[in-house]
Structure formats: structure tokens, C-alpha cells
Write a structure and sequence with these properties.
257 residues, Sortase, Chain: A, nine-stranded mixed beta sheet, two-stranded antiparallel sheet, globular
């Protein structure tokens, strides 16, 4: 009888072990492997389609009188929804930016428009008309572990990280721009910072005040400075996990080079 009980316990434990191993494989290992493989494939694709900035700048100078020149032409040949390329030196952020007719498609699909296990691709808010408006918002996932997509944005919660990585480069259809970062926000997904289409100066000024009042910290600019002239703001938004629907948002000023 004792042997029968022992054998039964062994079988139960073995089945439990197999069940746990199967759940781990299906729910942890396999999704992580698929995400890692998707990230590798997309990085290889990005390496193939990355614009040659030196050639772009040379061609741009030769064609200053030809406004039809598009430095993103080769990128658009791969994906006709391409609107830019963003690079922040010293970080993992070196990606094309796309724009769909909604803010959902590129949450699950890559630059090639194919499903890529939820890795997605950085995308411009569908409400924005390029990067010429007063506010442009780019979204991407926070892929932990792989430090993929906009995972490095969360590092900007420390002001020392911004001090070490204060600028980025944004290539658009109008040429190369510099982005000077000055604020980091930790806000809910429905915050007023996600407002776009600010056509009135009073609305733009109020928006700038909101950014400064909501920021975890600011550096390099004052609100009054940004209210002068036609300031263009770039917001880089990703999920963080301090609270439900928390977002980390890096804010910078777009300047044409």
C-alpha cells in the first residue's frame, strides 16, 4: 500500500512538473524567444533601410532649389508610410518612424507592415501632419529585457541621463533636424500632453505651461523662451509601470539644421 502511495505521489509530482514546464515554455520562454527573434529580424531590416545621412546632406545641398527632393525617398520605397528616422546617440534609439491612419496598427506590426509578436515600430500620432506642427508625438513600446524600441526613454527619468544624452537627430522629408531635449514627464495616458493640433497661440502657450508644470524636471529652456517664435515640440512616449496606464514622455525642441 505504501509503495502504491509513493508511486502515486511520484506520478503526481511528475505530472505537475511537466505541467509547470509546459506553462513556462508557452507563457514565458516562447513569447520571449519570439520577441527576441522579431527584434533581431527588425534590426536587420533597419540596417538595410537606414538612410545614409552623409549622402542625404550632400544631395540636399545640391538640390536646395528643388523642394521636391525627399531625403526619405529610399525609406518610403520600403514602406510608403515612412515619415522620418530618429537617432539618439548613446542610446538604443535608432529607428525609422512611420504613420498609419490610426494609433493601433504599428503597435503590433513592424516596419514591413507584418505582425511581429507585438514588437511594433515607432510611429507618429495619426493626428499629426508631419513634424511641422507645434506638437508632434511619436509612440513605441517599452520592451524590457531586450532594451528595444523606446525602452531607453524610461532612463530619462533620471536627470543625469538627459545630461549625458541631451540631443537627438530627426531626419524628415524636409531634411535633417536636431532635437534638444529639455523635459521628462511621468503621466497617465489621457494627460493633456497628448493634445495636438494647437493652432491658437494661447493654446500653444497653455500647452507649454502644462509641460513645465507636469514635468519631473526640466533643463535648458524656460517656458517663456519656448513661447517666443514658432517652437516645434517632439514628444517621445512609451509605457512605464509606476501606476496603471503610466507613460514616460521625453520632450524636446525640433530645430532645423
Amino acid at each position: 500500500m505504501k509503495k502504491l502511495v509513493l508511486w502515486a505521489m511520484v506520478v503526481i509530482l511528475a505530472c505537475a512538473g511537466i505541467y509547470c514546464a509546459k506553462r513556462y515554455y508557452d507563457e514565458a520562454y516562447l513569447p520571449r524567444k519570439q520577441l527576441k527573434d522579431a527584434d533581431k529580424e527588425q534590426r536587420e531590416l533597419f540596417d538595410r533601410v537606414r538612410p545614409d545621412v552623409s549622402v542625404t546632406e550632400a544631395v540636399s545641398e545640391e538640390n536646395e532649389s528643388q523642394p521636391e527632393y525627399d531625403p526619405l525617398a529610399d525609406l518610403k520605397a520600403e514602406n510608403d508610410e515612412s515619415v522620418g528616422w530618429l537617432t539618439i546617440d548613446g542610446t538604443g534609439i535608432d529607428y525609422p518612424i512611420v504613420q498609419a491612419s490610426d494609433n493601433s496598427f504599428y503597435l503590433q506590426n513592424g516596419f514591413d507592415k507584418q505582425y511581429n509578436c507585438g514588437l511594433g515600430c515607432p510611429f507618429l500620432d495619426y493626428r499629426c501632419e508631419g513634424f511641422g506642427e507645434s506638437v508632434s508625438i511619436v509612440y513605441a513600446h517599452h520592451i524590457q529585457g531586450e532594451q528595444a524600441m523606446f525602452a531607453d526613454i524610461a532612463k530619462y527619468k533620471e536627470s543625469s541621463y538627459m545630461a549625458a544624452h541631451p540631443r537627438g537627430e530627426l531626419l524628415t522629408a524636409d531634411g535633417m533636424c536636431e532635437v534638444d531635449f529639455f523635459a521628462y514627464l511621468n503621466i497617465p495616458s489621457d494627460d493633456y500632453a497628448y493634445q495636438v493640433g494647437l493652432t491658437k497661440k494661447s493654446d500653444r502657450d497653455g500647452y507649454i505651461d502644462h509641460i513645465f508644470s507636469s514635468a519631473s524636471y526640466t533643463s535648458g529652456f524656460t517656458a517663456d523662451e519656448l513661447k517666443r517664435g514658432d517652437t516645434r515640440l517632439l514628444l517621445l512616449s512609451t509605457c512605464t509601470y509606476e501606476f496603471w496606464e503610466a507613460r514616460g514622455v521625453l520632450v524636446g525642441v525640433i530645430k532645423q539644421k
